[in-house]
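USER:
Try writing one entry.

ASSISTANT:
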Amino acid sequence: MKRLKIGVIFGSRSVEHEVSVITALQVMQAADVNKYEIVPIYITKEGHWVTGNKLFKLESFKDLSLSVSGLQKAFIAPDASVDSLVGGSRKWFGEKVLKKIDVAFPLVHGTHGEDGTLQGLLELANIPYVGAGVLGSALGMDKIAMKAVFKENQLPVLNYIWFLRTEWENKQNEILSKIEAALKYPLFVKPANLGSSIGISKAENREALISAVDVASHYDRRLIVEESLEEGIEINCSVLGNDEPVASVCEQAISWDQFLNYDEKYLRGGKATGLKSAERRIPAPISQELTQQIQKLAIDAFKAIDCYGISRVDFLVNQNNDEIFLNEINTIPGSISFYLWEASGITFSELIDKLINLALYIQKEKSKNTYSYNSKIITNLTDKSLKCGIVK
C-alpha cells in the first residue's frame, strides 16, 4: 500500500515555538511509518521554512539559532495546482518540487499557525489538513471573539471586559473605572490572542491590575480582563471528530501556584518527558454526572466555533456547587492531547490515524462546494462602464 505523505508543520513566529517543536516530535515519533511518510516542515522563529531529516531529532533543536544549517529551504505555494512542498529558489518560477504533500498536519501553537493564518494558506493550496479550519482556528485563538460566540450559544463563561491597548494608553483611568464597576477582584488579565498562559497575570487590587495590563499589552493589541473563580478547579476535556464529535475522559490540572502558568504546563515533570509531564489527574476525581455535563459542554463548544479534527476544551468548576464555566478551547492542543485519548482507549498512533482520516473527509466535503460560477458580467462590460462602477 502506498504511504501517504504527511507534512508536519511546526515552530513558526510564536512565543509557543518550543512547545510546538515538542508536540511535532511526539507526533512524528508516534506516527505509523508503515502508513505514512513524514515530511517535517520547520518554520524558524524568524519565519524561514525548511525541511530535512535533521528535523526528526530532538538534538537539532537544542540550539535553535543553528538548527537550519544543512536543511533545505522550502515553502508551500498558495497555488491549488501545485499541492506540493517546493524549495530551492525564492522565485515563484523555476522552483524545485521537493515532495507532494497528501495531508498537512499543522502543529504550530499560537500566532501564525493556530490562529487561522496557516489554515488559510493550506486552503489556498487546496491541501487537506488536520484540525480546525480558518474560522474555527481564528475563533479558538481569540479569547474575546471566542467568548462572544460561547455567550451567543448560551454556554457559561465568567464575567469579562475587553479593550484595546491604545484605549489603555490614552484613557487608563476610564478603563480602570469601567473594569472595577463591572467586575470583582481578584481578576485575570490576558492578551486576546495567545496561549500557554503567556502574558497572563492575576490581580488582587488596582495596583496589580495596572501592572498586569502592562504585561499583557506586550503580547497583543486587544486585552481581556475576567473575574477569577476562587473556589475553582481546572478540568479539561478533549473533543475528536467532525460533524459528530466525541469527548475524551476529563483531567484535572493541578497547579502549584495561583494558576497553571507556562513553566508548570511544560517543565514541571522534567525536560525528558515533555508536555505529558505536567501534573494532572486522569480521570478527573469528579462525579460521573459532572463528567458527563463537562463532556457535553465540550462538544457544544467545539460545534459553536465550527471546529473539526481535535481540540482541548478547558473548564473552571466551582468546588462548592459544581457550577461549570467554559474557559477556552485549544484547536491545536499541546501533544494533541494524546494522553486524554490513551486514557479513553485510543493509542497515540490510532489518534493520528483518526485525525488524518478526518482531514481527508473534510477535504472531500469541501470538494462538494461550488467555488466558481460562469457569469457573463465581464463579457457584457465596456471600458466606459468600468469607470461608472459596478452595482451589486
